[in-house]
Amino acid sequence: xxxxxxxxxxxxxxxxxxxxxxxxxxxxxxxxxxxxxxxxxxxxxxxxxxxxxxxxxxxxxxxxxxxxxxxxxxxx
Length: 76
Prior knowledge:
This protein is α+β, with helices and mostly antiparallel strands. The protein has helices spanning 18-35, 63-74; strands at residues 3-5, 8-14, 40-44, 47-52. It starts with a strand and ends with a helix.
């Protein structure tokens, strides 16, 4: 579940291993390009953390963030 905190939408994802996490990141990267909206994220082994915020709107959560979050949820 996405959480809104510190002017971001945040979610952590856990996978079975690094390969699954990396494959997920690749799918998210393609979505981000389609949406022209790119996340801040980290990956450590099987965990991916994503923060979404709209920089050109003063680093706040906007509809752009919510749409990308929904698209990310749809690929799970």
